[in-house]
Amino acid sequence: MTPLLKVAVVGAGISGLTTARALKIEGHQVVVYEKSDQLGGTWVYNPRVESDPLGLDPNRDIVHSSLYHSLRTNLPRQLMGFVDYPFAIRENGDSGNFPCHEEVLEFLNEFAREFGLVELIRFKTEVVQVELRNDQWIVGSRTNEMTSDEVFDAVVVCVGHHTQPRLDEFSVFMLQKLQGMENWPGKQIHSHNYRVPEPFQDQIVVVIGDGPSAKDISLEISKVTKQVHLSSRSPDIKICKLDCGDNMWQHSKIDHVDGNGEVTFQDGASVRADIILHCTGFNYTFPFLKTEGIVGVDDNRVGPLYKHIFPPQLAPNLSFVGIPYQSGVLFLMIDLQAKWIALVLSGKAPLPSKEEMMADVQEYYRCMDDKGLPKHYTHCLRNEVSQFPKL
Ligand SMILES: Cc1cc2nc3c(=O)[nH]c(=O)nc-3n(C[C@H](O)[C@H](O)[C@H](O)COP(=O)(O)OP(=O)(O)OC[C@H]3O[C@@H](n4cnc5c(N)ncnc54)[C@H](O)[C@@H]3O)c2cc1C
Ligand SMILES: *[C@@H]1O[C@H](CO)[C@@H](O)[C@H](O)[C@H]1NC(C)=O
Ligand SMILES: *[C@@H]1O[C@H](CO)[C@@H](O)[C@H](O)[C@H]1NC(C)=O
């Protein structure tokens, strides 16, 4: 019989909580490390924003959550539960279909209490090092200024990936002072640091991005701004006025900016803008992970990872939960990932050999190349490769 393992879970958001529950049910010994003073991760709204609104300063004090104040889920509550734990309407709760973020956090707190997970969590304890030494995983952590090491059989990384801003190639290019961004007199903010519309009152704002945050935030600020100009990277965009508000326009990519505040789009239009809001997504980052290059991040490809979870060389004792995005029903996906890892670690669901797992990853990368998909789409489950796998 496979002995029970001592497993470290890094992070107490949805991924960490479902993983802790699944491991506990399988009889493993679980320690959850959480750097904040409460569970819930992204769903813990924080009105504070970072000192560098673009998130480029490596020495800034990091705020984990990117939630804005008005956020409601983009899936109905029926799809926000776990496999065997539905997202029910609370007694005095909101009866709307798309719950507000406070309700999601309450749901997670109830889940954690009900399954006895709170007592497994070491709050205010940040993992600063995860390293394999002589077949054992050493987890280094910091509480206040105290650091300590503890030995584990396995580690599950559940740290989320919506905290470190990512900028599009154009903005990075401009920031490298090649195209006048240093002379641009306006403000620049990444959506990570957007909370409420008030600071946008009477401003002319250019929003870069095509994702849900770009659309959501544009609509919200358009109620107070003078104008909103949405700049999309998709190639077939024509300049047009959007019918969702009388002060919103759609544009192609930005072509250049200049010292008098003017932003010129590739479609030829230009506006004198006060603020550029970058809704350009996030970078994966695992600063604590020391695997001597066995698993790493290259242009937002975390890998190699078998099925977005197990690095073949270090499986099953190192794994990742919550890496995919645009995966449809995220909470269910995360719950299933957690349950799979727990079963693999207790020996009930053996993985293929290292070689087979590696071949599977290589095949996936090859299909992406064939379709011309860039690396940073690796974990987007809405890309053509993962939606239509070869049968
Ligand atoms: C603006 C926004 C809106 C979203 N809306 C939806 C939605 O409507 N529906 C939906 O399904 N999903 C939505 N998402 C996706 C959201 O990320 C997931 O719902 C979910 O929060 C992912 O959970 P997670 O546990 O993987 O990561 P997180 O929630 O990010 O949790 C990670 C945890 O790890 C902790 N941590 C990080 N590093 C360390 C460390 N070194 N040591 C210790 N602890 C650490 C963090 O403090 C945090 O508590 C949204 C995301 C964003 C940014
Ligand atoms: C995973 O950890 C267990 C328990 O420490 C150990 O017996 C096993 O050999 C490890 N597996 C690998 C592939 O390193
Ligand atoms: C994000 O990752 C990309 C690709 O690895 C990198 O070039 C960039 O500097 C990172 N940071 C930002 C803010 O884009």
UniProtKB/TrEMBL annotation:
It comes from the Eukaryota. InterPro entries: FAD/NAD-bd_sf, Flavin_mOase, Flavin_mOase-like, FMO-like. SUPFAM superfamilies: FAD/NAD(P)-binding domain. Keywords: FAD, Flavoprotein, Monooxygenase, NADP, Oxidoreductase. Gene3D superfamilies: FAD/NAD(P)-binding domain. It holds the Pfam family FMO-like. It is an enzyme of class 1 (oxidoreductase). Its EC number is 1.-.-.-. Its cofactor is FAD. The keyword Oxidoreductase applies. Belongs to the FMO family. This is Flavin-containing monooxygenase. It comes from Rehmannia glutinosa.
